[in-house]
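Hi, here's the filled form for the chain we discussed.

Project: internal
Contact: R.S.
Residues: 107
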Amino acid sequence: AAEERAKRTVESLKIADEKERNEISDLVLKVLKARDAVEDYEREYRDKVRELSRNTDLSEEAIEARLTELREERKKRDKELSNGRKELAEIVDFKQELILIEQGILK
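And the returned structure, exactly as it came back:
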């Protein structure tokens, strides 16, 4: 689960100060959940696109509208992930940032 991954990640950062550790832990968890949501939506997105491609009754306009809706939902999830990463990057030091990049939490 995301909570367990966040715990292991924060342990690897070796943060002595409890307040700082808690703050970073909350943001790591936020990023992990957002990343999971993006990955889950990617699968859902492909399934929905597959369904659209099989529906021969849809007009071009209907397909365009549905694709636009799907893309907007994806952008929303991407933005949540991006915002979480930005918040996290602003409070960690560079050594911690390196660890978080290695683990795929930051870019």
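Let me know if anything looks off before we file it.
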